[in-house]
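Long-time lurker. I teach an intro course on protein structure, and each term I like to show students one example going from raw sequence to a predicted 3D structure in token notation. This year I'd like something fresh instead of my usual example. Would anyone be willing to generate the tokens for the chain below so I can use it in lecture? Attribution to the forum is fine with me.
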Amino acid sequence: MASAARSLSPSVEVTNVPAKRAVRRERVVAESIPLERARPFLKWAGGKSKLVESIFKRFPPSYGRYFEPFLGGGAVFFALGPNKATVADVNAELITAYSSIRDDVEGVIDALSVHRAEEAHFYSVRSQSKDGMAMCGVAARMIFLNRTCFNGLYRVNRAGAFNVPFGRYDNPRIVDEDNLRAVSRALKNVDVLHANVFATVEKAKPGDLIYFDPPYDPVSKTASFVGYTNSGFGPTEQQKLALTFSALANRGVHVVLSNSDTPFIRELYKDFRIDTLHVRRAINSRADRRGTVQEVLVSST
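-- Reply from a regular --
Happy to contribute to a lecture. Here you go:
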């Protein structure tokens, strides 16, 4: 597993020390400070930060390329730190944020630094059109809205417009420079795609590893939340994903999938190993649906 690290400028006293020795001492101190490991830079409903250890138990000890076609907040990707990876999502704004941080993290930090956690400013930014906006500005806008909106929920309406209200936090951390730079390092040499799940995994080879974290099958008629994009992911897509899972497994690809614990999902994956997980969810549009929920973790091996 790749280790990440934190970039700091060490404070070194150099009074009455020859220049060569001072430079050497600074280099030693700098090399002894570990770089910060990247963490998700967005709050994301269904994020896997609390489940990564359970998920990793179903990952093989070694693999070729890592694929994560439902990237979302990226908790599994960042915790894993794969050497070779392809990550993707159908949310174009999300992928713009990842790509911008990878390619121009300082530009994103600069664009983000002008934002402030004030209600009027929040709604002004929310109403802005992204058309013609620089990629760094799009990324900064998304991060700002996510960090200051109600309950950290990312949701769009049918027109694709972000529609979550202001969150009224006391002191939200809008700019986390160290983590954004760590995210940028983690994404170097990673293929970041705006693509659907099926196109993303087409080139997976035997020995590769794929983690699927699709929009969950609703546990009831009113419990569904798939508002990350203005396109749905219903029973037909779940069935197609299950067929893709099976085909990949038959090709020798290591495949792991998370989903809600429903009879429909258990039937789709009945030929594979199914583990039951319990996790507490804090992000939901309704308070009565936050709390401990039961999920399944499906694995091909």
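Some talking points for your students: The longest helix spans residues 235-250. The mean pLDDT is 86.
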